[in-house]
Amino acid sequence: MTMRIGHGYDVHATTQGDHVxxxxxxxxxxxxxxxxxxxxxALHALCDALLxxxxxxxxxxxxxxxxxxxxxxxxxxxxxxxxxxxxxxGWAAVNADLTIIAERPRIGPHIDAMREGIAAELDVxxxxxxxxxxxxxxxxxxxxxxxxxxxAVVLLEAR
Length: 159
Known about the structure:
Layout: E1 3-15, E2 19-22, E3 25-28, E4 32-33, H1 41-53, H2 59-62, H3 75-88, E5 91-101, H4 111-122, E6 129-134, H5 140-143, E7 147-158
């Protein structure tokens, strides 16, 4: 059985707004995230992890921020297209592990819904998706609340 691991990372700065999109969930916040698409760092990191594991480059190659078609695009749309690209290459997700780094808003109450949505997009059991949140302990730009970041790791297996 052939397997591959991929890692993804994304970060977006905060800006004016009233919510953020994280893991496919709308979360009320006293700010938004500056981005060409919806700024969902969790799903963007997951896309990068999937693309990397399949040897397909990165999210910027497939969904460039210079392309008007991706303006305000939902992270779920990018993830859905990424999963299709990965499957076309003969790969399927086995599991995914995501870490969201944010001082605020509180992520915990939304984790179960994120796991459900991500599992559905990856076509895996909910137990194969883990989402966790941490702060940056007040250190640096993320610690000052100037942005939100996410890491994602996925395991793919050849179909």
